[in-house]
Amino acid sequence: MSRSLFALLLALALPVSAATQVQFSTSQGEFVVELNEEKAPVTSQNFLRYVEDGSYVGTVFHRVIPGFMAQGGGFDKELAMHPTYAPIQNESGNGLSNDRATIAMARTQAPDSATRQFYINYSDNRFLNARGNRPGYAVFGKVVKGFSVIEKMAEIPTHTVRSKGMKDVPQQPIVITAVKILNK
């Protein structure tokens, strides 16, 4: 057997490291997100820290805009903000695009301000990508199962909660009831 054939067979026999998948259970159903730790290592590790410490459980999707995105992970049903770890470096220049069914980190106007809140794109929102010297919003994965659950969230009527200064809040809370890593 030639060395190149042996090397090929050996490579095929080695287990392929699967991308980390995270399952969300919500009051609307379940969906699975697959992380891209290769292109977004800082963002993925930050996200996994909140998954592993259990602090996404009990939070809600507090901002849902049909045709745009569903944002969650930072507030409870009373719209009280949950504690955060330190903000992370913005990885929006990683080559991943804010396309339909991708997950990205929410942030303030400051590029390196993302902490725990994330959003899932309902459509291709490429205007959120980095361009030239303008930082964008860091995509770090995609929904690989249950995107229909995300779409169902957009059917819930929203309102403004003036006392909290928040718009597009679902009138029926969309609660994250469990989060688990499927294959790490």
TrEMBL record:
Keyword Signal: yes
PROSITE patterns documented for this protein: CSA_PPIASE_1 (PS00170), CSA_PPIASE_2 (PS50072)
Entry EC no(s): 5.2.1.8
MF terms in GO: peptidyl-prolyl cis-trans isomerase activity
Membrane spanning stretches: none
Record's catalysed reaction(s): [protein]-peptidylproline (omega=180) = [protein]-peptidylproline (omega=0)
GO biological process, one term: protein folding
Record domain PPIase cyclophilin-type: where: 29-181
Stretch forming the signal peptide: 1-18
InterPro entries, alphabetized: Cyclophilin-like_dom_sf, Cyclophilin-type_PPIase_CS, Cyclophilin-type_PPIase_dom, E_coli_cyclophilin_A-like
Gene3D superfamilies documented for this protein: Cyclophilin-like (2.40.100.10)
Keywords for this protein: Isomerase, Rotamase, Signal
Family: Belongs to the cyclophilin-type PPIase family.
Described function: PPIases accelerate the folding of proteins. It catalyzes the cis-trans isomerization of proline imidic peptide bonds in oligopeptides.
Protein name in the entry: Peptidyl-prolyl cis-trans isomerase
Native species: Photobacterium ganghwense
